[in-house]
């Protein structure tokens, strides 16, 4: 295949996710090797439960936005030390759910330098027993996006804090599987500058796949903007959230039937039907006094900053 490449100068996660989705929808004549870095943010899979995956108080206190991908896979933390690669290609059955092809060049490179590198059964890139990259895919109308996040000099403490959930959540959504992680900078093989990292990785792939030429022309501006607005919307980020139950330390059960709305609360033999959003102001006069403290406690912990302009 004759690959084209593009490195995005934007660090806005919605810019970059919108770009790869629009390019997939435009059915380009050539596959694209896209690289980008995002500002600190939490990225969840299309069908995941954000309450189950994310430390919402930490995200709120640190002004970290929540971004929902259009692909499946687990939750990841992005920052300026995490290189994201997107392989935008025609659909091939042998590539779906398998990352041997996409990770092969970097695995061979790391092995040649004496590192134990491989793809594990969950399609994560492993080096010397630690995870350095996760992956996800989207297939639609004969096209597919296979994208991965590679840790180079990510703030691993912030990563742990963002993904550390204290609440007991019961949900049918597919949970992320946590793993020991490390940064690829510890190998001593890669540069420090973001764009230099991308070009170093591109060169590794070119040794296996042949030289790549730059993408000629960007996607239609209106389509790109519309996709970005869709991905930024509350309806996409929070409205897609699946049903779940949160069991508090006091024994209360907070139920959500989906769409990130609290729909009922149970304690002992008592059950109260409500319809409350954790993200907006709401009246308390119709809530029995005995339920107000626990609802306020949960809502306080589940605060999310909706003012995107102030999330950076």
Description:
This protein folds into two domains: 4-233, Bira Bifunctional Protein, Domain 2 (BirA Bifunctional Protein, domain 2, 2-Layer Sandwich); 244-310, no CATH class. With 312 residues, it is an alpha+beta fold. It is built from nine helices and 16 strands. Helix 1 crosses helix 7 (221-232).
Q: Topology as H/E string?
A: EHEEHHEEEHEEEEHEHEHHEEEEH
Give the CATH level 1 class of the largest domain.
Alpha Beta
Question: What is the radius of gyration?
Answer: 21 Å
Structural class: alpha+beta
Helix content: 25-40%
Counted up, domains total 2
The count of DSSP E runs of length 2 or more, i.e. the number of strands, is: 16
Uncertain segments are none
For this structure, what is the CATH homologous superfamily of the largest domain?
Answer: Bira Bifunctional Protein, Domain 2
């Amino acid at each position: 295949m004759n690959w084209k490449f593009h490195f995005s100068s934007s660090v806005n996660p919605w810019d970059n996710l919108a770009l790869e989705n629009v390019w997939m929808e435009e059915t380009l004549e050539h596959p694209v090797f896209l690289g980008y870095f995002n500002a600190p943010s939490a990225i969840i899979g299309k069908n995941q439960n954000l309450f189950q995956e994310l430390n919402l108080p930490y995200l709120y206190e640190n002004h970290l936005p929540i971004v929902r991908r259009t692909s499946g896979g687990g939750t990841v933390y992005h920052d300026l030390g995490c290189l994201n690669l997107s392989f935008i290609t025609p659909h091939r059955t042998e590539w779906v759910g398998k990352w041997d092809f996409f990770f092969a060049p970097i695995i061979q490179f790391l092995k040649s330098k004496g590192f134990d590198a491989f793809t594990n059964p969950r399609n994560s890139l492993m080096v010397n027993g630690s995870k350095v990259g996760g992956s996800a895919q989207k297939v639609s109308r004969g096209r597919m996006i296979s994208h991965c996040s590679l840790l180079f000099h990510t703030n691993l403490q912030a990563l742990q804090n963002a993904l550390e959930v204290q609440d007991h959540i019961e949900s049918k959504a597919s949970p992320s599987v946590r793993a020991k992680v490390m940064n690829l900078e510890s190998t001593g093989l890669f540069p420090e500058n973001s764009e230099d990292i991308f070009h170093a990785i591109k060169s590794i792939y070119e040794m296996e796949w042949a030289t790549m030429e730059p993408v000629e022309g960007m996607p239609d501006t209106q389509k790109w903007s519309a996709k970005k607005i869709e991905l930024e919307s509350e309806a996409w980020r929070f409205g897609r959230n699946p049903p779940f139950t949160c069991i508090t330390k006091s024994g209360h059960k907070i139920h959500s039937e989906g769409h990130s709305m609290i729909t009922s609360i149970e304690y002992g033999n008592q059950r109260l039907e409500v319809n409350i959003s954790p993200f907006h102001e709401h009246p308390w006069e119709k809530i029995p006094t005995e339920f107000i403290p626990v609802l306020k406690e949960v809502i306080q912990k589940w605060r999310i900053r909706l003012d995107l302009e102030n999330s950076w």
